[in-house]
Amino acid sequence: MSSQGIILADLDGDRTWRLADYVKRGGYEALKKIIAEKIPADEIIGEVKKSGLRGRGGAGFPTGLKWSFMPRAFPGAKYLACNSDEGEPGTFKDRDILRYNPHTVIEGMIIAGYAMGCERGYNYIHGEIFEVYDRFEEALAEAREAGLLGRNILGSDFSFDLFAHHGYGAYICGEETALLESIEGKKGQPRFKPPFPASFGLYGKPTTINNTETFASIPYIIREGGDAFLALGKPNNGGTKLFSVSGHVNKPGNYEIPLGTPFSVLLEMAGGIRGGRKLKAVIPGGSSAPVLPGAVMMDCTMDYDSISKAGSMLGSGAVIVMDESTCMVKALERLSYFYFEESCGQCTPCREGTGWLYRVVHRIENGLGRPDDLDLLNSVTANIMGRTICALGDAASMPVQSFVKHFGDEFAFHIEHKKCLVPPQVQYEGSKIYVA
Amino acid sequence: MLEIEIDGKQLQVSDGSTVMEAAATVGAYVPHFCYHKKLSIAANCRMCLVQVEKAPKPLPACATPVTNGMKVWTHSEQAVKAQKGVMEFLLINHPLDCPVCDQGGECQLQDLSVGYGGAQSRYEEEKRVVGNKNLGPLVSTDMTRCINCTRCVRFTTEIAGLMELGQAFRGEHAEIMPFVEKTVDSELSGNIIDLCPVGALTSKPFRFAARAWEMSRRKSISPHDSLGSNLIVQVKHDVVKRVLPLENEAVNECWLSDKDRFSYEGLNGEDRLKRPMVKQGGAWIETDWQTAMDYVVRGLKGIRADHGPESIGALGSPHSTLEELFLLQSVVRGLGSGNVDFRLRQSDFSADGRMKGAPWLGMSVSEIAGLDRLLIVGSFFRKDHPLVAQRVRQAVKKGLKVSAINPAFDDWQFALQNQLCVSPSEMSAALAKVLKALVEQGSAALSPEFQALVDSVQVDEQALAIARSLGSGRRVAVWMGNYAVQHQDGVALHALASEIARLSGGRFGVLGEAANSVGGYLAGAVPFGAVSGKNASEMLSTPLKAYVLLGIEPEFDLRDAVAARKAFGAAEMVVMLSAFKFEEALGYADVMLPVSPFTETGGAFVNCEGRTQSFHPVVKNTGDSRPAWKVLRVLGEALGLGNFDYESVDAVRAQILGASGSVDPFRLSNDIDIEPLNPAGVSQGLQRVADIPIHFADPLVRRSAPLQATKDSEAPFARISPATLKTLGLNAGDKVVVRSVSGSATVVVSEDEGVAAGCVRLAAAHSSTWALGSLNGEVSVERI
Amino acid sequence: MLSPESLKKIDQEIAKYPADQKQSASMSALRIAQQEKGWLANETIEFVAKYLGMPPVAVYEVASFYNMYDLAPVGARKITVCTNLPCALSGGVHAAEYIKKKLGIDFNETTADGKFTLKEGECMGACGDAPVLLVNNHQMCSWMTEEKIDQLLADLQK
Ligand SMILES: Cc1cc2nc3c(=O)[nH]c(=O)nc-3n(C[C@H](O)[C@H](O)[C@H](O)COP(=O)(O)O)c2cc1C
Ligand code: SF4
Ligand code: FES
Fold first, then answer.
1. E strand segments, B296-356
2. What is the pTM of this model?
3. In terms of CB atoms within 10 Å, which end of chain A has fewer, N or C?
4. Phi and psi at residue A234, to the nearest 5°
């Protein structure tokens, strides 16, 4: 964990997550300012728009714009949901935010509730990080105790309450409408859109969903102003962002850096490639983002626009680093298995197609590939992409397409020679992956 | 209105329409599986992808709302490519066993794969196998064929009202299933067979009986409940193989109750009566029609000569056709008697002669959708009227508030706003309380006939809540259920309910027990009018010398089986016109004449809303059986009674309804000349509440083996509320003898919170309970 | 069926949602029931359904959809190892293989003494700590080298 930014700055691991510590760091000042100065909702949304904050959950949608879609005047309940269902392989930033700085998320959500006229919020927390769920409950109790949550917050006429809802092992609940279904006590099957959550969300009421990191950025924006946040990054890519670096680096972990920082700098912060080996490939935005060859990555800066220009996505900011010891077929096989296992199963192309993709890649990896398998993979992914209810279909397809595109030779070698291009011993040294 | 262009055709559609709906109006077929017009949109099969201008990717027609100026292509290259891609995915794990699949020939997947499937599968991995599920005696499964469209799941949840099926597990492991070891017990369950677009859910009784293309499809009308569902009867070699719904939005929509769908299984059983039979010297012999008819004619003539025409009476089933009931009463009246009735389970006939017309629903079935307040009095609503209840369920989702007053409640699978549970003897007081509350609310003035009764009661919380509910409605209805009509104070309940409707500015209706509950009145099969006589109850309590019984199984279809057996046993002649040979009746009957069930005859039913629905025979007569209308016509002629020379069943109908063939609305009325009502005494003893379970209600359904194997056909329990069980010192599971004034029955006790205190709910129309005689009255219960 | 403590916990979860949305607590209720009973038998699922006023099959859908519910009995300690790509690159697969060897069982198996069940997990959102594993769903163990696995198994044996 290392920070040149605003969310993970000045933290001391597990020791400083409590309300008092947060207040010492300037916490809840933004909220107090809003309450004291009775800042109008529009102004808050305007500030968020100005900040250039883009959703940190993966899609990078401008947050201020999203907030402006909420029908503030809609009579009756409106809801807010925080997406802490971080299940995208490679992503582990929200866990650290919630572990070390939960109140910044709470404050961000209260402000969002104020700005959009919501009376209730839920934070949906990934099932496997249950300790974080318990801690968040504690943080909520602290906030409630201090009059920051509940009826008439800080003596104002604004009321907002917030609750934690835990997941229990389903990646798809990170998709925002699946997340809503899950809060409703159902299995997490995404809804067809339209209608969008802003008009038909939780319990059928207007709802806004943002990622944990997105909410965590809000207090700073309100406290210091949208322009200050924007200036931390670069135009259209405001602020700092957490990058979760994993894989073949010496110091895997979360790094909060200004958007626009060169990838090479981030790689260096993460201690460089393990064992002095050469960089082979990087998945720059979580497992759903297309893989890029190492050389391409080295020319990129870490922001939405640069990565997108290079043919991938900044996504959730999960940077999976693979060095030359990696067998790309095996790497794809594991990812394909993941999507096959995690498809919710409602859409025909995703339910049937993800299993097909996995089985073909598995076959290639196991020396049973056929000459036309790569064409088959490309054609099956083309039949999945853009034909499903949610983006998991695309998420499952993009790795396949990009691995085959950039590392086609390695796949061809596998098919022809029934074995890895990267010798098993080298693979073992790099990742300790046993080869049967 | 929105402008849209589909495949180059311009059209206007209303706001909120989907592309699928718009396409349907211009006849553009968009392939689909999960979409169904009566179910919520799932958009999961992805088969309906179409090209939309400016959309970067194909969109599902079923879920995409039309926007103004939208341009859609359903068969462009992009659309067809997407559809073909989806079809390939659907087929990779689908078994290619069409030649042995029951759905073969009527499978949407098979049909569409011809147009959208590839010649050869590119999928060479192992195919998925999914375990079959036991859904009960009606629906058979082959889950490997399932394409997870979830239509069946949505049906149970949305239409049947209880989620009995779900999609468990996820991804490729997703499986449609009931909760482990549970079956699908809804009385509407058979509809999931129609809904399943592949061969995953098929009819268990029909399994392997025939291939779709070998059967002819003939229209008919269900002879069971008072809705008159429209049927397609599928026939092969003159045998009914299967029954499907004939879509009629105004009546059954696209649904059927299981009773409508599977009762045909009772048509061809062992006990079909195939030849006329007469009893000679105590022994039954089969004979020909001539002999049997001579026997009947001689017998009736002799009895009339010896004892006078009033000694002859006839009882007809309300499941008989309009024409049959008309000719039955014509024969009786021709003989000079007025003893004819078809209201077999009714006990209060005090309104006879004071009715302004045939009691009916008071509104059309399709108007149910627009109601906002409804009070149901005395009804086992969901099981008595499965598809009307279904309509009410949909209306409830749109804001209809339903209240009910009953001596026993089941789960109707929709939310009741008010549920007033009182014993049978308290029902009229309960209605009077509601009436009083309405009066106090200051609606219109009360008719004086009710004053005494209303004065004798005190408004309570529940009555007030019901009155408030009705008073706040704008489209209100009050309905009498079968139980209320059969109630010992039926006429008082009728009058009270109708007054409640009047004071709440609503409409009053009678749901009606059987396919021809309205038609029987129009046919004149009642002991008042031209020649009056004894009603169904009097014919049993003051025995006659001769009885003609049409379509009746006396032990199960009459109000008091004990009295009936006594009366028939003492009569000189009992003539039964029946499709079935009734073992029990062989003892007291003298002649059995084999007549046709609905599939072998023509005629009409008038449903609860007054709609005449006629039908033709769909198969040839079984054995020597003949349509009852022909038998009665011949009987009339043989008896030398005039005006029996009808050439066709249509001519009989014209005689009843006039040339139009439909019911003159003036003949339908729920009005009666009311007489002042007095407070009824409240019974102190344990009272019986008898329901007529859905699959016990008529002779045909009682013979359908698969229906008799359902949960709804379990042998009756003595159902008692927990509090009353305690007072009686009984426990659920106890075996008890229930005694009435007429006899006893040995049954098992079950605990049922839905039963009013001080009551025993014990179903009738069953071999284990007929010996109790009357459907109501006091009983005692004793553990053995 | 469930202990008063469990029911109290479930009631606390129910209170988080609007009064007419009791079923929102289905996931928590199943979790709490599983913690008490060790796994989710059909009776348990039916009980939860009744408690929340839901159709049993709807609760079964939930119980079978989310990975962390166990629809069959598991050992006293369920160990779930993440083998997803980021973890695999840092020894996740190796950690799993090591545990398999030590316990003498494969994934989805339980040791003969009923103490341990081993499961393969998907991404736990802790890839930076690879190899990671979960003990009984709620206790996360990070940087699981062979030595740390030895230590953990020894502790859990107690
Ligand atoms: C399959 C899938 C998984 C997703 N997982 C996550 C996730 O774990 N966390 C997250 O914040 N967003 C996730 N998203 C994105 C959300 O749907 C949504 O866009 C996001 O939470 C919106 O918040 P933001 O605008 O603040 O980014 C996922 C989307 C898809 C399609
Ligand atoms: S794309 Fe896959 S995960 Fe998303 S809704 Fe469809 S089946 Fe479910
Ligand atoms: S019919 Fe539209 S997705 Fe199935």
1. 312-316, 340-341
2. 0.96
3. C
4. -135, 165
